[in-house]
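Quick one, tokens below. Sequence please?
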């Protein structure tokens, strides 16, 4: 800090000099380019987080399909004793709930133990839940790592800026001082932007997966109650 204050005191501050610096306009691409390799790393992290968000949203949207119609049809066929048709109908539902019901139907007639059927459905539910949660933790990791990477880039940028200032002979140019600092701060802004995006995406995905898990639990309970009553 003392070093920075001494540099500022020794720096010439012509009235038109600083005005020229702030009037200088840069495009977003030019700002990102000045961030160097740190911005490239942050860009890769953003692409990964965005890809995982879109991929998981499509998967969750498919898994959240309302199982009521399928469950009503399966219940009707089970009550008629037509288990084969109930299996075919459940097989048409490529959702976690459809796979769980089909697994439960496969045990009808092979065992009278409901706890065994319930256990088999729970095992299928665990596999489907693993597929849903796969790589979501990576989005959470990016939300925490991106700001730290951006801050690290800023520290490196500030070190380079002060090295450049120390190598200047005579008075330090205001443009050299200010440009070195703002270029270093670009990575902090980039890291925060990627981190905030990944943080919102992660929490949204976690909330959406909780809705799917709730539907899976409801379907399991209703199916077991159906078998208990028949």
């Amino acid at each position: 800090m003392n070093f920075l204050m001494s540099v500022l005191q020794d720096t010439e501050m012509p009235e038109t000099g600083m005005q020229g610096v702030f009037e200088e306009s840069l495009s977003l691409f030019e700002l990102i380019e000045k961030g160097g390799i740190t911005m490239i790393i942050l860009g890769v992290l953003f692409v990964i987080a965005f890809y995982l968000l879109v991929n998981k949203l499509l998967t969750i949207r498919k898994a959240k399909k309302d199982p009521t119609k399928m469950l009503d049809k399966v219940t009707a066929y089970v009550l008629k004793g037509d288990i084969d048709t109930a299996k075919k109908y459940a097989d048409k539902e490529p959702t976690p709930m459809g796979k769980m019901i089909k697994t439960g139907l496969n045990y009808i007639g092979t065992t009278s133990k409901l706890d065994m059927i319930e256990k088999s459905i729970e095992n299928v539910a665990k596999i489907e839940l693993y597929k849903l949660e796969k790589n979501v933790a990576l989005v959470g990791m990016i939300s925490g790592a991106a700001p730290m990477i951006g801050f690290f880039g800023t520290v490196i940028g500030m070190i380079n800026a002060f090295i450049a200032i120390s190598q200047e002979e005579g008075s330090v140019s205001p443009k050299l001082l200010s440009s070195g600092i703002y270029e270093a701060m670009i990575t902090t802004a980039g890291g925060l932007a990627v981190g905030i995006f990944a943080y919102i995406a992660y929490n949204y995905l976690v909330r959406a997966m909780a809705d799917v898990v709730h539907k899976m639990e409801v379907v399991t309970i209703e199916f077991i109650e159906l078998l208990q009553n028949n």
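Residues 11-23 have pLDDT under 50 and may be disordered. The chain is about 85% helix and 0% strand.
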